[in-house]
Design a protein that fits this description.
This is Amino acid transporter transmembrane domain-containing protein. The chain crosses the membrane at residues 81-102, 143-168, 180-197, 204-228, 240-264, 276-302, 322-347, 368-385, 391-416, 428-450. Residues 51-450 form the Amino acid transporter transmembrane domain. One of its GO terms (cellular component) is vacuolar membrane. The protein has helices at 40-43, 52-63, 71-76, 80-112, 119-128, 138-175, 182-196, 202-228, 246-257, 260-268, 281-305, 322-354, 363-384, 389-416, 426-457; strands at 5-6, 17-18. With 464 residues, it is mainly alpha-helical. The chain has a single domain (46-457), classed as Up-down Bundle (Amino acid/polyamine transporter I), CATH 1.20.1740.10. The chain has a two-stranded antiparallel ribbon. It is globular. It starts with a strand and ends in a 7-residue tail after the last helix.
């Protein structure tokens, strides 16, 4: 399998780029800016372009993961009314931040006459051609995004492995009357993980994302069946929980909804990138679906299970029912098929940083060896510490709130500074408000995660 590359265009000023290239170091001449006639979409030539529907599937899958199963717990920490309103508002904020990131990337491509830029490259170029005093921040902004994405997605991959192994343990041990340790199931999980993690092209991951989406939809259907099976009781559920538990709500929803690392690779690999933004557009369609599903599962899941809502709503389903077992197996399979897409993001970043140092004739072998080594390391961490969730929650709180909310706001502000910020500088005011919310989510989410880690490893925690 080969990577998606943007072929050189006959125009001598259009350099060669990789469609999902986060880390190109190609330098531009100062006279290559402010060319309003340059359309970057017309200069993109991708070996294996992704269709609009395929891009929609990827974007849906990047935001539909284990987080949605925790939405009843989020609502428990927010209350029915506040949870419903808060979920919609956070979803719209996340969607807006993705929108301004992609829009700014397009505008930077136009001004700098580059056909395609990744997330980190966009941040770097914005500072390079921004206010003089901020240009020294260009390299830092690129490195911050790169290493933030790698830390987030490699860590999330470890949790995925633990989640799959734990789900298999709960179902198979009961069904087959076994007493196998979760570590045995983690080892078994590593077999398909090692195969799926070798896929290097987004186009070939579409079938896996499609199956994962199908499995999640079926799991949702089964879950909704149990939720609505008996009459619901609303009276004993508060509309607002308490201020003390709001950080748990915000950190859960933001971590669950954000798929910022997948956005630019998906958009950059599209055959028709103009379909990504706009109305309805790939972004609006995907995020509208995500917000609706999150609100429905969270609201009615909390109404059904109340204060006993588990970290994953599938754990609240009656274990003696075959339908509940099917739901647990399907969600495990969905997370397994999601691994390839999540692993693509950090590996793409890492490979761009090191591929120039490896002889071309050894690229294929090197990719296989590096990917295998990293996945074995991730599996080893999962085996050593099966209780990874609090640690990953900390990483997610730090990087998803900063990468998904703060960075897009900063990038847009720097790009438009100082004369294009709108009437009364409303764009600046809006971005300051969103940035403040991001910092609040970062601090509160980190505090909650650290608190959970302390509880886990002091009072009543243990590792198997």
């Amino acid at each position: 399998m080969t990577e998606e590359k943007v072929k050189p265009h006959p125009d001598p000023v259009a350099p060669q780029f990789v469609a999902s290239d986060f880390n190109s170091t190609t330098k531009l001449a100062d006279n290559q800016i402010d060319d309003d006639d340059y359309n970057p979409f017309e200069h993109r030539q991708i070996d294996k372009p992704n269709s609009t529907s395929g891009s929609l599937i990827h974007l849906l899958k990047s935001s539909l993961g284990t987080g949605i199963l925790a939405m009843p717990v989020a609502f428990k920490n927010a209350g029915l009314l506040f949870g419903a309103i808060g979920t919609v508002i956070i979803g719209l904020i996340c969607t807006h931040c993705v929108h301004i990131l992609v829009k700014t990337s397009h505008q930077v491509c136009q001004r700098t006459r580059i056909p395609v830029l990744g997330f980190a490259e966009t941040a770097e170029r914005v500072f390079q051609y921004g206010p003089v005093k901020l240009r020294r921040m260009a390299n830092f902004s690129k490195l911050f995004v790169d290493y933030g994405l790698m830390a987030t997605y490699f860590s999330a991959g470890c949790v995925y492995i633990v989640f799959i192994g734990s789900s298999l343990e709960k179902v198979i041990n009961v069904a087959a009357d076994l007493d196998w340790s979760v570590r045995i199931y983690i080892l078994l999980t590593m077999i398909p993980i090692l195969l799926i993690g070798q896929i290097r092209t987004l186009k070939y991951l579409v079938p896996f994302s499609a199956l994962a989406n199908l499995f999640i939809v079926v799991t949702f259907g089964i879950t909704l069946y149990y939720i609505f099976k008996d009459p619901l009781v609303f009276d004993d559920k508060p509309n607002f929980a308490s201020f003390a538990t709001l950080p748990l709500f915000f950190s859960t929803v933001i971590f669950a909804m954000e798929g910022i690392g997948v956005v630019m690779p998906v958009e950059n690999s599209m055959a028709k990138p103009q379909h990504f933004l706009g109305c309805p557009g790939v972004l609006n369609t995907a995020m509208g679906t995500v917000i609706t599903l999150y609100a429905v599962i969270g609201f009615f899941g909390y109404v059904r299970y109340g204060d006993i809502s588990a970290g994953s709503i599938t754990l609240n389903l009656p274990t003696e029912d075959i339908l509940a077992k099917i739901a647990q197996l399907l969600i495990a399979a969905a997370i397994l098929f999601t691994f390839g897409l999540q692993f693509y993001v950090p590996m793409d970043i890492l490979w761009k940083k090191i591929h120039d140092k490896i002889p071309k004739d050894k690229h294929n072998f090197s990719q296989i060896a590096i990917r295998t080594g990293i996945m074995i390391l991730m599996g080893g961490i999962a085996l050593a510490v099966p209780d990874l969730e609090p640690f990953i929650g900390l990483v997610g709180a730090v990087f998803f709130s900063s990468l998904g909310l703060l960075v897009p706001c900063v990038v847009e502000t720097v790009f438009l500074w100082p004369n294009e910020l709108g009437t009364f500088k409303w764009i600046l005011i809006k971005n300051v408000i969103f940035s403040a919310f991001s910092i609040f989510a970062l601090i509160s989410g980190s505090f909650v995660s650290i608190e959970e880690i302390v509880k886990l490893y002091t009072n009543d925690g243990h590792t198997e």
